Amino acid sequence: MCSEKFLLILASVLVYNALALESLDSEWKLWKSNYGRKYSSRKEEEFRRKNWDTNWQKVLEHNQLADQGKKSYWMKMNHFADKSENELKRMDCLHFPTSEERNFKNYQDKKYQNLPPNVDWREEKCVTAVKNQGTCGSCWAFATVGTIESRYCIKYGSLVELSEQQLVDCDHNNGGCCGGFPDAALDYILDNGLMKSSKYKYKGYGSECRFKSKQALALNSTKFYNLAGEDNIASALAFEGPMSITFAVDTNFMFYDRGIYDDECAEHPNHAMLVVGYGSEDYEQYWLVKNSWGHYWGENGYVNIRRNVNLCNIGDMASAADLM
């Protein structure tokens, strides 16, 4: 009798596992279809599927904790899901410049004592659509161009999409797809201007510089500055506009879906993004940040990051310029 019961339990477990595997196979096929994945060999497909299975389990376990209120954000299986842990860790696009930039001033302002409770520059129609840097390590270019796009809109009332590819190809103080730094990029822009993205389209890889000064938007500045500290960032953001920030991205961040990100960090800043606002949810304060990983990442390309704890060094190296 006991052996019959054991066999019945074993059979049930085997059926359950078979159904679970079939369901996972269906999810894998759907994910590949959604993200246009086609692999060059069976060996590569097996490698990518193994990574995907590992990340599936990671996302599943994390979201179970989030559903229980033990995590402040949820994850999802996005376009990073077939990457290995080592591949994700190598996606570093932030490198300090090899030459000195102009004399950036340190921003200090006491206006943060009278800050509005919420800021979102998208409501003023001064933030361009979410873009996608692809496999090129050009986050520094997207964050800096985003800063200029928004500041230009605030100053002149016109939202214009400008060229990240110009920076990738022509800003030789930065490293193109091998990484760069917003301060050096801002320095280049203020000296040369920027072409519109329609005239100098993004390719996602470095190529010969095709900059034409006669087609560039001249961008003169009365002040260019670094901002250290979240109080200063909040003040400049509320009263002057969006700016680039740097962030120490851990692999968990890459699977962000929704909620307020408050999790592990890398050892040092390795990514640049554009902060466009701040707010609070259930008494938790957050930064509203625009990323450059496409609209399918996060909340339509955006992430809420916990504020006023300097999470992942977000308050260490923000930068912006006032246009004239």
Task: Set out the fold topology.
Layout: H1 2-34, H2 42-67, E1 73-75, H3 85-89, E2 105-106, E3 119-120, H4 139-156, H5 164-170, H6 182-192, E4 194-195, E5 216-217, E6 221-227, H7 230-239, E7 243-247, E8 256-261, E9 271-281, E10 284-290, E11 302-306, E12 318-323
Parallel strand pairs: 2-6, 8-11
Antiparallel strand pairs: 1-8, 3-9, 4-5, 6-12, 7-9, 9-10, 10-11
What does this entry look like structurally?
The chain has 324 residues and is an alpha+beta fold. It has two domains: 1-34; 87-323, Alpha-Beta Complex (Cathepsin B, Chain A). It is 34% helix and 18% strand. Mean pLDDT is 90; it is low at 10-20.
Keywords, separated by commas or semicolons:
324 residues, alpha+beta, Cathepsin B, Chain A, 7-stranded mixed β-sheet, 3-stranded mixed β-sheet, globular
Tell me the count of domains: 2
Low-confidence stretches are 10-20
CATH fold annotation of the largest domain: Cathepsin B, Chain A
CATH architecture of the largest domain: Alpha-Beta Complex
User: Radius of gyration over alpha carbons?
Assistant: 22 Å
What's the rounded overall pLDDT mean? 90
Q: What is the string of helix and strand elements?
A: HHEHEEHHHEEEHEEEEEE
